[in-house]
Records
---
Amino acid sequence: MTTDPRALPGADPHTGNREIDPVTGYETTGHDWGGIRELNTPFPRIALIALALTFAWSVLAWILLPAWPLGRDYTRGLLGLDQGEVAMDRLQAIETDRAAWLTRFDAPDFAALATDSALMAQAMPAARRLFEDNCAACHGRDGEGGPGFPRLADASWLWDGTPEEIAITIGHGINADDPDTRVAEVPAFDWMDRADRHSLAEFVASLPAGEADWNSPAAALFAENCAACHGERGEGGLGIGAPSLTDRATIYGQDAQTVYQTLTRGRRGVMPAWAVRLSEAEINLLALYVSRLSEMTGEQGQ
């Protein structure tokens, strides 16, 4: 069976001869796009070469490198490379390099360590990496905090801002599944009259701006229900996990509506205990770093 040449792409329907582009010398395909004729150009040789090399390399990679999954295992390849082993070797090298100075944090004298400039030059970059890996997701990369998570880069602390106390918080957590965890909770004041709750919420919301009327009925409500934990003027810092209500770094927000929700439903935030993940030396190193965040960010005041 023969093909009629007149039916071939680019052929003249009467003579069967292919049309040749006078400029390039290539045959045309017979397609005409608004006066522009499509050329029947050959596939670029460089592309064919690249395709062949890519195919050859893929076959070679399958043979030499880990490539094919086999259920829970995989083919190792003739070179026997294992990225997990490479990563562990590099981690071991890092651990060996820092072991010489990290042991000083096993049972540290924080005051003495903080004055050792050579040690701090080695330790603080490692401490920042620990912070970014374990704390920044909640507290922010620079300890700026966020909704539901305390700010660490200022002078207001739920318990205490010393490295020793911070280490306890990091190690045992807050309201965590740890026998020595710190405990802090705002009870629900849903028993209180709704009008009183609204009045108290407005009063607490006015504290950061210093606009609170301490001779008002709302101030009396504050004294009766809040001052025992948050301080007579809402300054916090009593070492019992009650935050300051007078600074900018409020945990859940301090607009009247949010405070009303807190009074109605209560709050019980949780911080996990990191002793199950970090070594004692790493916790102490991290505690020293966190205690210095206010200095590093220049926000030592309230």
---
Amino acid sequence: MYDLHLVSLEDKIWINEILSQVDFYTCEYPFGNVFSYGAKMNIMVGNISGCLVTKCIMNDYVMYCCPIGKGDMKKAVEFILSDAKADGRDFEIFGINPSSAEFISKTFPNVFDISLERDTFDYIYNSEDLINLSGKKYQPKRNHISYFMKNNDWSYERLNEENIPECLEMSKLWLEGSLEEYREELEGELKIIKRVFDNYDKLDYIGGVLRVDGRVVAYTMGEPASKDMFCVHIEKAFSDIRGAYPMINQQFVKNELSGYKYINREDDTGAENLRKAKLSYYPVILAEKYEAKLKNAH
């Protein structure tokens, strides 16, 4: 009898074992990301026929991440259909890569409407591009970084147990300066950040911190997705400090992530400004994702 349960630190070993069987996966799957969102989204996980199945409960709606692993995908999707029926709420399967979308479409004909979701595409970059910022197309980034370096007494350091309290305080100040219309969403994000910080020594996160005059003005963190790819989950900087964002981006990859070929900076959620910013770094891969909903769902 298969079942799902609320994600906990005890799930790290078996989830990482399943993910190690997969050559490539997107930002939804790394354990630290699943765990950090656990409290906000009531995330449940289970090993279903050798596949990782993740269920997110959001008020009256349920989202399942596409099953992943070398197990029986057909049985895993059948489990989702059964679990969703028992749950009784509308649902969708998200984060579906092209090959899985094709498999689900062929294996479950006339069951799902499957659509390509541009807002969920992951932006993946060459680490060397983010470090060197070479060529004319990166000139604006180099200009911002040059300004930052010339006009600030700055330093970079790795995120650790000692500077975590300062990073959390910086996040609170950043939230206070945000627009009121985004306040509720960003308060939820702050809870996610706090859960990471509270368990930082138990997760595989790596982070970087940028200071000006000794004060934290930016930080970032994420976790490995494979031996070749690192996922950046969180990046915060004070926008009124010119160059803080491109500086923490470059310094983090340069100092901590040069051993990875690819840097995954997640999706843009459909936000116009965020999409423009992510495209300005010229991704080498836009990882396509699909969503599946029941046909004729109410």
---
Amino acid sequence: MRQSKLLSLLLAVLTALAVLTGAVAVPILCRPFYYAQIGPLGLESYTGLTGDQIRQAYDEVLDYCTGLSEAFSAGVLPFSDSGASHFADVRGLFLLDLGVLAFCLIALGAVILLCQRRVRPQPLLGRGPGFWGACGLGAAFLVIGGLAALDFDRAFTIFHALFFPGKTNWIFDWRTDPVILILPQDFFRNCALLVLALLLLWCAVLIAADLLAAGARRRAGACVGESRVKSEE
């Protein structure tokens, strides 16, 4: 069975994208992560809403942003056209993340099936594609996370400037868009911490799996060598 460096690079990129989009998808899809913060963040006293009203508002916002509903709504909270347009932008990013995640998982499955039949990835410097994808992604986000930790407010602003270029509708006035009251910056900081923790965890698992696999191959090779020596004797 022939080996391919191009296949290794493709697998490294797909693995890195799957880990990144998967980590981002967790706080998007795991709504209990938000529910658990309603009390610690003091949202009921801060907003004057009940816990049920806050959860309903959040659920309706997430239903829209994840494509489960076509019209934007936020429970009992009113909203402006500008506020709704920002969540339309967010919807596009969320659906893009989920779409890329689905594509990467399907593509990885297809490539793995191909590897079993015709071609296998060629190790790069003795390491597999998962190792290099995890190393590149993990190193990049360690730097990004470190910079964000130094000044999260600035990082928050830069994030919005990058992903919503030329727009200011992400700057909410709570009097016209009180939905921002149930989505404080502390919540987004906690989301960022969760994404970073999951991403680094999955990268560590991939790196450890590659190191263990390499060790197993070396031991298997040593056993084969010993068997040949004994048979020659």
---
Amino acid sequence: MSDQHEPPAQAPVEDSLKQVKDLLARHRLVEGLVHKQNMPRHELVESLVHKQNLVELQKKLDKLHPADVAYILEALPLEDRLLVWNLVKADRDGDILLEVSDAVRESLIATMNIHELVAAAASLDTDEIADLAPDLPKDVVQELLKSLDHAKRVQVESSLSYDEDSVGGLMDYDFVTIRADVTLEVALRYLRRLGELPSHSDKLFVVDRNERLIGTLPLKRMLVHDPDVHVAAIMSDDPVKFSPSDPATDAAQAFERYDLVTAPVVDARGNLVGRLTVDVVLDFIRAEAEEDMLQAAGLREEEDLFSTVWKAAKNRWLWLAINLCTALFASRVVGAFEGSIEKLAALAALMPIVAGMGGNSGSQTLTLMVRGLALGLISKENTKRLLIKELGIAVLNGVMWGSMMGLITWLLYDNIGLALVMAAAMLMSLIVAALAGFVAPIIIVRLGHDPAFGAHVLLTFITDSMGFLIFLGLATLVLL
């Protein structure tokens, strides 16, 4: 995100949100009272009161970091959100649009004309323009590109050519290069002439005369070595580097593994084309985590917390429809054993326990699998070993908890046959749940989706249906 604004020392953002809400409530209260008064030149007085009440709110917003303003906008209903947005200074629009969620950004962009949008985007850095451009109308993007100088336009077009989940879609072009054959004293003089370094600069990129990356020079090494030493003598000649086409998830894992602050991005010929910074990587990780959480619940990323009932309902229809279909299938499994349940009413009380235990056990396996797939820890070589491990855990848990539930069933119903059925069904259900939790995310990945996408829905469908089928089927065969 933009680094033009340093976060000031201030109260927590929740306090700022409360103050904004209080100011909005006071504004509406005073406006309502003035509106009810019968006085000369009523419209003029009402207009003056309206402006006066918003001055304090505008001053409050001016003191806040763009990220804090974005947080406040996301926490306000649409009417209040638009009122606050209109009070934000135009030169901060771009920074705030970058910080808000996709759904809120859509609502704000809808209120802006083409000139306001072009001005807001043009004030941003190249990589930030590329982040914002996909959410802008096409005519705005065209006007925006026309307004940029040639070098910046080429960089923006280059960034837009990469997938948003690739390194190329996240990299920026603001970096400092240096030659290997100069001394540290020369390098330091060069930095002093620049006046300031790009944000999150912890190293310089060492290139040859053809702009080919040959190493990196950490700034801390510059400060502790003799100024007469050449860059080549102390640079790192084997840095962690990325290609623009590399998946952003791989880069995020590398940043975490090696505690990186910045890393170079090179093309197929080894030429330096950009850099990746830790703030952008953290934003990507947060966005991915939020998307996974929403997808696991069957929600879309673009849902606004304060969207209309109709829009929010439409957003949730798909997964509710899928859940309804799976629930109907599970009910038909139970319906096939209505006769057995009528003869032995205890089956109706016990079957949810089998399905519930299967669901919980499967969720544990599923969570580990989704995490392993997301981190790239699961491969063809270790899949079989992991499957055997999860099945072993399921058997152990099935024997232990199945035996316990069998004993409880015998004590409750004084029916040894029903107790044995309960124990066996519990064991078999946990084995099926482990298989389902292991296989479901793999199937989803093979279909080209994120492993969290619909995995819980699929798991619930399997564990409920198979849990009912196993328990009622065994009961019908053994007891009736």
